[in-house]
Amino acid sequence: MPANIAAVRLTLDGKDLADKIDPRLLALTLTEKRGGEADELSITLHNTDGLLALPAPGKVLSLALGWAQGDDVTPGLIDKGRFTVDEVEAGGYPDQVTITARSADLSGKYRQRRTKVWKDTTLGAVLADIAARHGITARVHPDLAGKPIAAIDQHGKSDMAFVRDLGSRYDAVATWKDRKLIFIPVGSATTAGGKAIPALSLTRRDGWAWRFTRADRDENDGAEAQWHDQAAGRRKKVSTGGKNPKKLKRVYASEADAKQAAHAEAGKRKRGGFKFEYDLAVADCTIQPNRPATLSGWGKTVDGITWLVESLETTMGGGGIRQKLALESTQI
């Protein structure tokens, strides 16, 4: 029975680093998130001989992770995209170098505060405009791309913060990966390109430590939003229903915008009532945030919940790959 042997491929500005990285690798951790934050890659290398050249911030690393061989794994590398070096730290004893890189260039214009107003447009057009500022493309799910926007204001916010706000407003995964701005509904059955997202099935045999928690929830069972009716000269309300809806503070420019915000808020309140963390025995590098999941073997309560992958942390070191998943419930 062949042992499971992990494999990694790193390139710097297109140049393969295998001969430099492999003999020095102490630890590699990739944190992938569903929210508006960029994914983070951390690499720790030994530098006891002092010969390791430090990459400058702004350099681009490409990462692929997987298994070289193994009886209970699928050999092959999974492309994890490109990461811009954000921070380099050297220290000792013993001498080590830690490189931190992110899937968005946080040292560039992503953090620059801007003010801009869009009128009579669509969500897809707004996101395409933001992506074009950074020389990248926007991948917006068809269910969201055509959403009408009467007016929206990016007032003194960075593009990172504004896209994160849009994700909350439309209850969407809003993230920057591999030089793309990705925007898809939370829990979508398909990717932005229309490819089906397969469900992940996990049992108690698939991992080690696990933790199930029920989060504190408020009593709101829906959402209510206001919008300004210019023709009538007054504010009006829309609601998703419920005995005690959450009242949104913002006043929206149109009825469509108010309905969108109310339904997004109601959707978020249906999720997150339960959390589940699981350390997998054998890492699966094909897993990504927003993938639906089912659990089996933990009893009626846990097994009966529909889950989504909220985030995952993949760590490589000592010849193996470890993985921790964070799941949230999609409904109570």
Automatic annotation (TrEMBL):
Composition bias type Basic residues, residue spans: 233-246
Domain of life: Bacteria
SUPFAM superfamilies assigned: Phage tail proteins
Leader peptide range in chain numbering: none
Residue numbers spanned by region Disordered: 220-246
InterPro entries attached to this UniProt entry: Phage_Baseplate_Hub
Protein name: Phage late control protein
Taxonomic source organism: Novosphingobium colocasiae
Species lineage: Bacteria, Pseudomonadati, Pseudomonadota, Alphaproteobacteria, Sphingomonadales
Gene this protein is translated from: D
